[in-house]
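Please check this one:

***
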Amino acid sequence: MLIEASKRKVLLKTFSIEKDKGTGDLLKDEPYGTHLRWAKRGYIDAYHSGFPCATFSRLKFREVEGLPGPIRTKEEPYGRRSNTGREQQSCDDGTIMACRSINIADAVADKKTVTKVRPIATLENPPESDHPQHLSAWELPEMKEFTKKSGRRVALFNTCAYQNQTPVGHRHFKPQKFVGTLMGIEQLCKRCGCGEFATHDAIIGPQKSKESGRYPDEFCEAYAKLAIQHLILMGKEEYLKERMTKLGDTIRKRKAEVVEYNTLRRPSRSPLTRRRREAEEKTRRDADEDRSNSPARPAGHNSPPPMRLRSRSPRNKKAELKPNQDKGWVEGEGKYGSLKAQKSKAELRDPAEFVGGMRNPYETVVAMSNLLSLGIRVKAAWEAFYRQNKGATTVAEQYGTKECWKDNRLLQNWKGHLKKVLGANAPPAVKMTPRWGYVSPLDPEIFEAWVTRGNDPEVHVSDWIRRGAPLGIESPIPTAGIFPPAEANNMDYPGQQELEDAAGQLSKGHLTNYSSVQENTEEAKVELDRYRKAGFMVDVKKEVVTEEMKHGTISKLGLIIKHKAEGIKRRIILDLRRSGGNKKATLPEKLVLPRPRDFLNSIRCTPCNEPMVETKATLGSLQSSTSAMPSCHWPWRRGSCRTPWRRT
């Protein structure tokens, strides 16, 4: 399914539960309870179950000495009276797994939404036989109710029909039956084509029975193609329904606006227009009165009738809407009582606050006078400090090498100068140590003073240093207008869904890391020890995780090893994507990261009091040369830049 989904460019997430692989037990309450809850809430789009068929097998009715006999019949579907305790327990387990599979399949297929394309829900087990006492899984009362419902399709095939790559003598004749809502499932129907005199591998013993129950690769590919095509149709239907809903809302909104406009009274005219209209009406009345008082014309008189004065109103007079006497004028939220509010460009937020703030910080900061003046003071303080302490740049010069070392005395001395320039407060006399012992090495008082004095919009940094940065899971991520709002319809974030927590993950059994960690255990320990010494990692007992962190997320670890000239570089990967940790987090903003051209534009925007240097940069496939002299970007010095240039 995942391979076919990647070919069709479909984003698919799968959950596979199988006891032999250690991913879960269908007889336990979990993960059955969670999956049933997901199905009832409509979180599952496709479901398939091939529950064990050992208690429903036709092989138990073979009269061969040494083989176990049947434990259920058509007269006794839930267990024979002659069963031993162990046999009855096995029969009950088979019934429970079959019923649980039916419950989830019904919940997925009978999703309470008006759709033409139903979700996928299929069940698999060997079909009925001609034996008078054999009871297949399809003859259970619960299974009969499932198959009788509308929309259920059936596919019958032999396993050997999908084993073309297997020699004829090693193929399995075992018949199979699929029933469900998968569109085109009838295309899977195939009969044995091995030939009339061909032999098949005899199914004798539990190992052979287990091998015969495995789906052939050819069948899995055929099923996956039908399932992915079905899911694509579901996605198209959901997309079109959403478009229709939005279009319907827009039409209803426009209709309401038209009806409201037609029923409203137009505002009164200006005084000049009103006086002109009154004068025209008075002139018309005087003309009618003169015509009525004039003597009657004699017969045969050809004199023209009295001239009627014409109003000076324009010929193409606009038709006026008749006011509604029942309802007066209702003013809107716009200017002068208009229906729609109009926002000027000054009222709209500058897009540079979002995109430009990250892609070209200089263009954003240049408009903030407080930050500019504060930056000049900090720069002057640093230049004075550098002249007094010649070893202030040693860390920058040796950074990335083994000889790099930090002089704590110089660091504390520079912090004192910086706090004096920024007017930072003194740290609290008493500090609360976090439970897990990690304290950020950053100084929150410096950041807080810098933000306050510079009137910087990002006001949450100091709190993150003191208390830790929120991930959007238990604590929401506050916004300050640095990034644009996140889009609601995002493929990486499908919305609030109930995801599996640590308790559900631990119920599946032992969790293992990726093979990159399993095969390089010593290398992984070296990197993890480095995290532990730096305070980035803490060892927690499993009892603490089970009791206090059961609502968290357990993610697998991966390891990347790179051999370089200076030594081995290791990197630990915490896979929060496949464990569902990323989906649990709510990201209110869209991360806009700088591009290579933004880096070059940022260099061109260097202030005029700094000498510009011609640079040649190669960033990936981008090769750019700033050979031309960039223009001055300081508006109050435009045209008067006399900065010396040097070519390197």
Remarks:
- Residues 351-467 form one domain.
- The first strand starts at residue 46 and ends at 49.
- Residues 299-329, 489-498, 608-648 have pLDDT under 50 and may be disordered.
- The chain has 20 helices and eight strands.
